[in-house]
From TrEMBL:
Functional summary from the UniProt entry: Catalyzes the reductive methylation of 2'-deoxyuridine-5'-monophosphate (dUMP) to 2'-deoxythymidine-5'-monophosphate (dTMP) while utilizing 5,10-methylenetetrahydrofolate (mTHF) as the methyl donor and reductant in the reaction, yielding dihydrofolate (DHF) as a by-product. This enzymatic reaction provides an intracellular de novo source of dTMP, an essential precursor for DNA biosynthesis.
Protein name: Thymidylate synthase
Organism encoding this protein: Fontibacillus panacisegetis
Annotated metabolic or biological route of this protein: Pyrimidine metabolism; dTTP biosynthesis
Biological process annotations from GO: dTMP biosynthetic process; dTTP biosynthetic process; methylation
Protein's gene: thyA
Length: 264
């Protein structure tokens, strides 16, 4: 995960001071890319401990099409608590757009089912896209999607994924986002009988919050460990049948947790 640490250093070196919606203040750069060869290990940050349980349950929750935090709460995941209303609802966020994008004529489109069918039927297609940026519904979401579009690509029996984020909390959010989409790529590859290729991450406003600077410095003093390996213990019937216990991360060696406050 040296490239992740290089990105943190890049933002420290080149970031301009920029105010933001939360009032916290950031340093920010615009437009960056990271590439991870998924066959060389699972891209999980090792210079602090990543709470994998939150990453896995959040992804399973997206895939269910769920937009209420009750499932997350039942599994001890608190990362969305600050954004939910008094009933636990977040509005039509990721899960809703991924599984039930509402069209003008009242139909609901399951983008995840469709993209997997398309990858199986027509791997060469250049239209393997899933978008969470539903222009007509963004204003009803408690937080407009940060990771808002992803594309799959198949060549030589390998599945790659490219993700675009409009806004990136480089210290807290990004390690989660990389792990989440790497995991999704492994799952989709398994469902489509493909090997994994690359995960490519692109970010628009890539920032470090002013109250994460000490934490970032601590992290940059640490030496990364070799990447862990993901083992998926069985092949479920469909992309929607994975459970938490299906995933095992072998040899995840990491430095201790670094605490930080999330900007709301
Ligand atoms: N400012 C901000 N940054 C984000 O990364 C973010 C948002 N807002 N809003 C929506 C979601 C929620 N996400 C979050 C929220 C909190 C953590 C967090 O506090 N992580 C801690 C502890 C994780 C845990 O114990 O589960 C960490 O050390 O990684 C991570 C991602 C990602 N998103
Ligand atoms: O998956 C996520 C979700 C959110 N973030 C970060 C990026 C920003 O710091 C905030 C969102 O604030 P906006 O003012 O809406 O841009 O959340 C993330 O990094 N990853």
């Amino acid at each position: 995960m040296r490239n992740y640490l290089d990105l943190l250093q890049d933002v420290l070196d080149n970031g301009a001071k920029k105010e933001d919606r939360t009032g916290t203040g950031t340093i920010s750069v615009f437009g960056r890319q990271l590439r991870f060869d998924l066959s060389k290990g699972f891209p999980l940050v090792t210079t602090k401990k990543i709470h994998l349980k939150s990453v896995i349950h959040e992804l399973l929750w997206f895939l269910k099409g769920d937009t209420n935090i009750s499932y997350l709460k039942e599994h001890g995941v608190r990362i969305w608590d600050e954004w939910a209303d008094e009933n636990g609802n977040l509005g039509p966020v990721y899960g809703s757009q991924w599984r039930a994008w509402e069209t003008a004529d009242g139909r609901h489109i399951d983008q995840i089912t469709n993209v997997i069918q398309a990858i199986k039927k027509n791997p060469d297609s250049r239209r393997h896209l899933v978008s969470a940026w539903n222009v007509g519904e963004v204003d009803h979401m408690k937080l407009p999607p940060c990771h808002f579009v992803f594309q799959f690509y198949v060549v030589e029996g390998k599945l790659s994924c490219m993700l675009t984020m409009r806004s990136v909390d480089t210290f807290l959010g990004l390690p989660f986002n990389i792990a989440s989409y790497a995991l999704l790529t492994h799952m989709v590859a398994q469902q489509c009988d493909l090997e994994v290729g690359e995960f490519i991450w692109s970010g628009g406003d890539v920032h470090i919050y002013s109250n994460h600077l000490e934490q970032v410095k601590t992290q940059l003093e640490r030496e990364p460990y070799p990447l862990p390996k993901l083992v998926i213990k069985r092949k479920p019937e469909s992309i929607f049948d994975y459970v938490y216990e299906d995933f095992e991360f072998e040899d995840y060696q990491c430095h201790p947790t670094i605490k930080a406050t999330v900007a709301v």
